[in-house]
Amino acid sequence: MLHSLYNTSLSLLTDLYQLTMAYGYWKSGTAQKETVFNLYFRKHPFQGGFTVACGLSSAIEYLNAFSFSSDDVRYLSTLTGTDGQPLFDPAFLDYLQTLRFTGDIDAVPEGTVVFPNEPLIRVRGPILQCQLLETPLLTLINFQSLIATKAARMRLAAHDDTLLEFGLRRAQGIDGGMTASRAAYIGGCDATSNVLAGKLYGIPVRGTHAHSWVMSFDSELESFNVYADVLPNNVTLLVDTYDTIQGVRNAVEAGKKLRERGYQLSAIRLDSGDLAYLSMEARKLLDEAGFRETAIVGSNDLDEYLVTSLKEQGAKINIWGIGTKLVTAYDQPALGGVYKLAAIQNPAGQWDYKLKLSEQTIKISTPGIQQVRRYYNERGFISDMIYNEETPPAGPSTMIDPYDFTRQRRFADATTFEDLLVPVFRNGQTVYTTPDIQTVRNRVTTQLSQLHPGIKRFTNPHAYPVGLEQNLHQLRTDLILKLRQK
Amino acid sequence: MLHSLYNTSLSLLTDLYQLTMAYGYWKSGTAQKETVFNLYFRKHPFQGGFTVACGLSSAIEYLNAFSFSSDDVRYLSTLTGTDGQPLFDPAFLDYLQTLRFTGDIDAVPEGTVVFPNEPLIRVRGPILQCQLLETPLLTLINFQSLIATKAARMRLAAHDDTLLEFGLRRAQGIDGGMTASRAAYIGGCDATSNVLAGKLYGIPVRGTHAHSWVMSFDSELESFNVYADVLPNNVTLLVDTYDTIQGVRNAVEAGKKLRERGYQLSAIRLDSGDLAYLSMEARKLLDEAGFRETAIVGSNDLDEYLVTSLKEQGAKINIWGIGTKLVTAYDQPALGGVYKLAAIQNPAGQWDYKLKLSEQTIKISTPGIQQVRRYYNERGFISDMIYNEETPPAGPSTMIDPYDFTRQRRFADATTFEDLLVPVFRNGQTVYTTPDIQTVRNRVTTQLSQLHPGIKRFTNPHAYPVGLEQNLHQLRTDLILKLRQK
Predict the structure, then answer these.
(1) Is Ligase tagged as a keyword (chains A, B) (predicted)?
(2) Hey, what CATH class is A208-294 in?
(3) Exposed end of chain A (fewer CB within 10 Å): N or C?
């Protein structure tokens, strides 16, 4: 995915402070210290109850290509400090050129439904390497998870209707559009208008004509007839260039001619006005003329809330076109994923656990070599427990809410469980086979089907229970108290 | 800019309907009809009073590289319609492979302040080509103009303080981040944390260390001392990992040692908590210890409103770090730019003017071969008049508000004027020299200095007057009436 798009080394796609810190570690002799960092988020986007993890396949590609070119290093050698002297020692730049990722990565597969504080990616390795990866991993995972989640919400709103993504023109740059098309498909869209995404990612593409097609002819009917003549096996007619109801009548006329030729009028599209009213009127006109199989496409700044509302109003739309609101995640255009140091190995080979304090309780991080255990019963997921792999849960463990220690839970009702993070890299080598996009998309569907409807609703969703395993909770509490006493 | 990033043909970076329409034009023998399309937006982003045009240099690169590869065409040959038959005739695909842009483009230079309904880009050429360019031009111009505008607003809020952009981790994909860094610099940021943007676009880069640096040492003071030791000419110390005020005291200690070595503590950084209170306390501690030259960097989900508020509260911050809210244009993550057909040449070589009707007055387009004339007096811009180049204003013309024809204006008070759109392509060849990024950035500064402060304010800004030249207004009115009578 990345490789097919970019022709430049992306190792400088990081914040400068990652490089100055790397230099600091190198120069102070601590570059090789073994560390563990966790990538996680603190709050679901869109005030929702779930998030879809996405972007791992890009991260794998990034890591496999991770190396500084001579050109990268030449650029770094030009950077200077406040005194006009070079920032970096040339020996460090030589070292950078030999640097490869040599660590371990465990991650939640793409398409998994995840919750706040759960590591989506866990990176273990020399601190210098782990630090450099912070920015690119966040860039790749934050955005893709955000869009996959938005698409999954649209899918829930649309039920079994067809969902088309056509946001490219409003996307945030070329790759903003490409990445959005891929994540939107994974999250639940059926097709995209983005032809390059179709070609590179194997996503179905859809599209017929715009207002300009109609305007380029002397009459709307003529434009419909010519279109149906030329592309008889792909006829969706956009009916709102001038007067929508008249547009539907013209579409019916063109549809009749098309039928005489042995083809079908696939759909009409409404792109403005009162979509509830117009779709009901259009449905009547189509049905009366015998076009019961002709679908109605609705579009115009739609999101999950508008789709829900239109359905409630009885709109006769079977295909939803969604663009801007999806590809920019309009109502919350960023997922606040973070990447936090959780442990450092001391010279004796033991882990020193690490935690970032904050006056805001939600911003205090969690230490440990974290894994997530998901418990199931016969109806689906019942709760997730974050534990430290150094102190795994023994038998029926208790989990504790990190923000309210009086909320505790044992798993008497669980029939089975699964650990969510799977090995992806070992000693810098990929040990994971990236599933194809269809498999990832199916995973989203399956995962969502295991979630209680209350967690999936848009308004005040029920909070899925996630807690810390009791030993990890104790470790975290001890560390907080120790740091606060300093 | 594009070339340096991508290694794939981007000609399929378009909506499928552009290709199906292109096929329709080709097959119906109208592909060569000479047309004019205008790219414009209808409303300023962020409820603001101005927009900064950005993205033209990317558009030029895109156009210069525009051609369908054999690989692109092979992919298109696999697309099928409802009957399972290929969508496109192989002869059309052969034709696509020979296609190059042969038309004319006029555009507003990057960094120009622009207003609703003004064409930012005007494309003239065979309808098939113009149509294919709609999506990529919108993708490139919409996002870059949005971010440059957001950055310009941040610049207005920050006055003469330093503005650092460090949004990469929350950006919308890799190129979302790269493009945002460039547009943010053009709009008024002084530097970016994005090292790849520094390398590829020549933007100054800045950055020192993160919380993880502090956490990787046994004590905060030790971490500061090591950092100052290793990078003495780039010392900004992040003081809020544990307790912010103690962090400032530790920074002062580290700063004293640094001073003994002949270096200066450049800055401290506050990334959480009450930035107003903490910056004032930190300033006192720094000043008392003789660090009057040490700057204070403030960051934490800042935008133009928070910066304004913090300044009003007397915050002692001289360097503002802005990330998420800037690179995603958080409060309005899309600019609604559109691309509308405005004229088609008839066989007699005359223009048939075109217009898209809508029930929403603001969505009715304007016909014509549009140019924008900006009038000045000695204080700056006074108003812009959109005119049809076929009926240029003769002498002192009258302009008319397209949404209220009783609002009219003559230019008795104008001392001079300038036409904003300049030739960029002629017969498919570039006739424009793209200015360097510094020149574009300076243009934004100069342009904004010519705008009345009332237009630049964030709350209920004054609307800068933009009207249609009287002949163009008449043409538009006649067309609307004619279409409504149909």
Answers:
(1) yes
(2) alpha beta
(3) C
A134 exposed, middle or buried (CB, 10 Å; 0-12, 13-18, 19+)? buried
With beta carbons less than 8 A apart as the criterion, state whether B216 and A344 touch: yes
How close B88 comes to chain A (CA, Å)? 8
Check residue A357 and give its pLDDT.
87
Residue in the structure block whose two tokens are 């342009």: B447
Give the H or E element holding residue B148: helix B127-158
Distance between CA A10 and CA A57 in Å, rounded? Answer: 16
The interface predicted TM-score of the complex, written ipTM, equals 0.95
Q: Is A322 a residue whose pLDDT tops 80?
A: yes
At the topology level, CATH places domain B208-299 in TIM Barrel (3.20.20)
Strand partners, B384: B374, B466
Largest separation between any pair of C-alpha atoms in chain A: 85
- With CB atoms and an 8 Å threshold, state whether A14 touches B340: no
> What one-character DSSP code corresponds to residue B434?
P
Q: Residue A340 to residues A36, A364, A397, B39: CA-CA distances in angstroms?
A: 8, 10, 26, 44
All residues of chain A having their beta carbon less than 8 Å from the beta carbon of residue B363 are 272
CB contact under 8 A, B174 and A171: no
A444, A188 contact by CB (below 8 A): yes
Residue A401: predicted pLDDT? 93
Mean pLDDT for chain A overall: 95
C-alpha A127/C-alpha A139 separation (Å) is 19
Per residue in A90-124, pLDDT (tens digit) is 999 999 999 999 999 999 999 999 999 999 999 99
**pLDDT under 70: residue ranges of chain B:** 1-4, 486
Nearest Cα neighbor of A23 from A72, A96, A107, A82 is A96
The Cα–Cα gap between A183 and A146 comes to 8
Residues of B in contact with A33 (CB under 8 A): 216
Least confident residue range of A206-215, A371-380, B248-257, B356-365: B356-365
Looking at the complex, report in whole angstroms how far the Cα of residue A418 sits from the nearest Cα belonging to chain B.
Answer: 30
* A120/A422 Cα distance (integer angstroms): 10
Cβ–Cβ below 8 Å for B27 and A230: yes
In B, which residues are within 8 Å of A81 by CB distance?
231-234
**Which positions ≥6 away from B317 have C-beta within 8 Å?**
B161, B270, B275, B279, B296, B297, B298, B310
The domain segmentation of chain B, as residue ranges, is 208-299
For the CA atoms of B89, B91, B94, B98, the dihedral, rounded to the nearest 10 degrees, stands at -120
Q: Which residue of A has its CA nearest to B339?
A: A212
Closest CA to B35 of B339, B336, B338: B339
Per-residue pLDDT, B216: 94
Q: What is the 3-state secondary structure (H, E, C) of chain A?
A: CHHHHECCCCCCCCEHHHHHHHHHHHHCCCCCCEEEEEEECCCCHHHCCCEECCCHHHHHHHHHCCCCCHHHHHHHHCCECCCCCECCCHHHHHHHHHCCCCCEEEECCCCCEECCCCCCEEEEEEHHHHHHHHHHHHHHHHHHHHHHHHHHHHHHHHCCCEEEECCHHHCCCHHHHHHHHHHHHHHCCCEECEHHHHHHHCCCECCCCCHHHHHCCCCHHHHHHHHHHHCCCCCEEECCCCCHHHHHHHHHHHHHHHHHCCCCCCEEEECCCCHHHHHHHHHHHHHHCCCCCCEEEECCCCCHHHHHHHHHCCCCCCEEEECHHHHCCCCCCCCCCEEEEEEEECCCCCEEECCCCCCCHHHCCCCCCEEEEEEEECCEEEEEEEEECCCCCCCCCEEEECCEEEEEEECCCCCEEEECCEEEEECCEECCCCCCHHHHHHHHHHHHHCCCHHHHCCCCCCCCCEEEEHHHHHHHHHHHHHHHHC
Instruction: Check residues B361 and A125 and name the one with the higher pLDDT.
Output: A125
